[in-house]
Design brief:
Helices cover about 20% and strands about 30% of the residues. By secondary structure, the chain is of the alpha+beta class. It has three domains: about 140 residues, PUA domain-like (Roll), CATH 2.30.280; about 140 residues, no CATH class; about 90 residues, 2-Layer Sandwich (TATA-Binding Protein), CATH 3.30.310.
Amino acid sequence: MRHPQLYEWYSAEDVRAFLDPQSEVQRLCDDQWLVSSTSAACLTNIGEPPKNSHFENASTFCWVAERLYHASDATSAHFLPAQVISSSKNNPPIHLFVRPLQAEKYLYAGQLQPCGRMEMPGKRSHGMAFFALNPALPSAVWERLGGLRFGNLDFAELDRALDRLRQPMTAEERFSVLQQLVNYWHGPIRPEDGMSDAEIGSSMPLPLPLRWWYRWAGKRTEIMSGQNILLVPRDYEHRYRMLGLKDGRLLFYVENQGVYQWSTLPHGDDPPVFGRWERKGRWAREKITLSEHLILMCLFEAVFCHANYGASIAWLEEERLDEIVKNIPPLAIRPWRWLGLRFFVGQGAFVCAGENRNPKKKYHPGEKRYYSVWVGAKTEYPLQFLKPFLDDKWEYIAI
């Protein structure tokens, strides 16, 4: 396949002309996939997820089948051409062309890696396939395609709000900081986003910070749940997501596989938070209050689930981490005991760093420390400082 120019617009006929004229071309899935022995092209409309194909983040494209397809004999992914699945022996280069709904031409967005993650046909869709995209999609191009809405980009105002955490604050003052953090990442909260007292119910005692959160934004579950799970007062269809009293404490937040749990006291204006491993053992105090914990939850989920741009690495030397965060202030809230997770925020960049070690282990003098590090931002611009530190050891890069 001759290479088209990045971020230029092409007609379907132009794309077909790029394919190797010496090879037979298969047209699959209503001509959304063109596959030959030497190359492949995806031509598709993009729109709102989950019903439409879309960019999950700047370096991940999700193709959504528009109806039930039988594009291959692959038992696990018959809705997808076999040549673009990572288990295939000979994967051709895969080129992505996308267009907004109703547009005539397609924009060349880059090259896809073979699909390594998919969702089988079901209630949400007729099948989804996720592809790594190279290079990462620039935010200006993404916005032009209609799939990225910047919202509030005033990180200076947010930095000032988070800097106030260095001073003694009441729970209500921390709620104000949390509101600014939520508005930055998720936009304004509407009155209908909160739960009514009837929806919260009265059967479970709630400390002030949790009651405040449910009343203000309790229905916006994506803000505090995604990688981990904030439990809710009522969810009779998924009872494992409901608040519960354990050993006289209120279990309210869990790691997504139950590896770690957080609890608090069922009463109080801003009670302490406790944590424990593997749903067993004694609860240990986290050295932070519940209002502080809500801020950490929001930051954590933002970096893991809502950052369109970012990078992550599983093993980074402590000295290298120190260089990366040299100009990013540490958040003035003590770390979680879970992973020893620390947070750094500044100038639109958000960093989470957790120590890779057994929590019961003691270090020997001179022993190296390693960290898992996740970096996120709303656009690529605040993350340009990270480029000198990136190499092939980073598992994910979208900058």
